[in-house]
Amino acid sequence: MVTQQNSLSGNWALILGASSGFGAATALELARRGMNIFGVHLDRSTTLPNAEKVKAEIEGIGQRAVFFNVNAANATKRAEVLDRISTLLAGSEPAGKVMVLLHSLAFGSLGEFIAEQPRDAIKQPQVEMTLDVMANSLVYWTQDLVYRGLMGAGARIFAMTSSGSHRVWRGYGAVSGAKACLEAYVRQLAVELAPKGITVNAVRAGVTDTRAARAIPEFDKMAHEASTRNPMGRMTRPEDVAATIGALCVPETYWLTGNVLGVDGGEDNIS
Prior knowledge:
Helix content is about 40%, strand content about 15%. The chain is α/β, with parallel strands linked by helices. It has a single domain (about 10-270), classed as Rossmann fold. The longest helix has 24 residues, at about 125-145. The chain starts with 11 loop residues before the first strand and ends in an 8-residue tail after the last strand. The model has no long low-confidence stretch (mean pLDDT about 90).
């Protein structure tokens, strides 16, 4: 049996997609639980204040925050970020670890596979980019963290999925495929990392009003239906999901791995 040592206080969480939505909410939740935060985000000048605000709030809580404004799906940038993380952790007293990885990347292409006009249909590069960002990158970040010795026994990995992995919504096909793939990767990684004492779970949030979700075609209709359908009487909020992730980071959840965890107020159970 691998000894579980996942004290949050003084250790680090790595949040991919840290400037908004689930990533931002989880970064703040884990900071309140005593964690320092590495945040990876991709923002231009118009949205960069979001990242700066989250970073400032983490520091206001009293925790360290180191943010990187890079493309998380770019192999060169990933290596640069991890080089910097390795240096920072090696220089800390005592040496810290990345005890939580949250994959919350929501950059993908929306569009129909079979549109009225072929020119309007989603194209191969868009499908492949969506899969690479929203699914494949989980594998690559996990590999590098483990191989570099930055993540070990007691660590927790979470990947954000959605009901789109098994439900159909117009224009959501490429993202649906990526989410289904992501869930398969979670199961595979959970089995391969179990001997190392690292757990891996997907978190299936309910429909949530985030910057990325608003780009989905007919999101207002989706939001209304979710609010009506949800037995809790409202949509899911990023803070609901963040609170759950925070609660699952304790040592007692060492036997929970390889799952798709519904954090949606029961929404997905109602047709």
